[in-house]
Design a protein that fits this description.
With 289 residues, the chain is an alpha/beta fold. It has two domains: 20-104 and 205-249 and 264-274, 3-Layer(aba) Sandwich (D-Maltodextrin-Binding Protein, domain 2); 106-202, D-Maltodextrin-Binding Protein, domain 2, CATH 3.40.190. The protein is built from ten helices and twelve strands. Keywords: Signal. It comes from Andreprevotia lacus DSM 23236.
Length: 289
């Protein structure tokens, strides 16, 4: 009887531990440019939720499509991902509809091959971009957005390979989010890639937390925690502390903005909540196209 009670107690403890753990995927990147900030937001949401959760990274490296498949399974090995939203993802997973990036995942600056920093010096419109080929991961929503706009895209199944392929001239440019590009440039310094100085490609996009449909309580807790952090200003303080120096360095207001449509952004995106989105203090005037 004592052994049976002990076994039942161990099972109960394991169940509780599992229920209170949030497992997130391990990225392909040698230096994941999103991880520090996203984990800080996730920890803030947990803290503000009033619930106790332990965060743990998966043992297995996952590309984005693999992570989505894992999360969609009823017995998947992860509990949460952070990624750009689209209708398919919102159907298969539980979205927490707060753009933790303030929409800046859709603001893109190009990395260029070594010695070609002035490649886009005369680019001012989407039409001007059409002769050039972008590099992207095969399972990123950005690939579809660029192609929908008539732009050429070369894809890869390896995130790290994209930087090497750019350096060797397999494609012309690698558009990266303004939230990622500085860290990525630094972590691939040996490739001597160039930071494009003249344009910013911009399309409406939202970067959400998604959780498994098997864990609606986790979704509710994180939604509550994020809303609390927005209300008391702690979310904005975290965002500005992390990104204001980067955004100042990139000088978005001085760049020519090339706007692309995003047909994949669901109507459920909270575009009417202005406090959730990045607003550039002095945007450059958009050109007529």
């Amino acid at each position: 009887m004592r052994k049976l009670l002990l076994a039942c107690w161990c099972c109960l403890c394991m169940s509780v531990a599992t229920a209170d753990t949030i497992v997130y995927p391990r990225h392909q990147a040698t230096h994941d440019p999103q991880l520090d900030y996203v984990l800080a937001v996730l920890k803030l949401a947990v803290q503000k939720s009033g619930k106790r959760y332990t965060l743990r990274q998966s043992d297995i490296i996952m590309v984005q499509s693999r992570a989505i498949e894992e999360l969609a399974r009823s017995n998947g090995s992860i509990d949460i991902i952070w990624t750009m939203t689209d209708a398919d993802r919102e159907t298969r997973l539980l979205p927490i509809r707060i753009p933790i990036d303030k929409g800046l995942i859709g603001w893109r600056i190009a990395l260029l091959p070594p010695g070609r920093g002035e490649l886009f010096s005369r680019v001012q419109t989407r039409q001007d971009l059409k002769p050039y080929t972008a590099g992207q991961m095969h399972d990123w929503p950005d690939t579809r957005i660029l192609r929908d706009s008539g732009l050429k895209v070369e894809t890869s199944s390896s995130y790290e390979a994209l930087f090497k392929q750019l350096a060797t001239g397999r494609f012309d440019y690698f558009p990266r989010s303004v939230l990622e590009i500085s860290q990525e440039l630094a972590s691939h310094a040996e490739l001597e890639l160039a930071l494009e100085q003249h344009i910013v490609i911009e399309y409406p996009a939202a970067f959400y937390f998604f959780v498994s449909r098997q864990r609606p309580q986790l979704a509710a807790d994180l939604q509550r925690g994020l809303e609390a952090a927005i209300s008391d200003g702690s979310f904005d303080r975290l965002f500005h502390r992390q990104f204001d120096p980067v955004l100042k360095q990139l000088q978005l207001e001085k760049r020519t903005r090339i706007h692309l449509e995003n047909a994949w952004l669901p109507d459920s995106a909270p575009l009417n909540r202005q406090e959730l989105w990045f607003a550039m203090p002095a945007p450059a005037p958009a050109l007529q196209r």
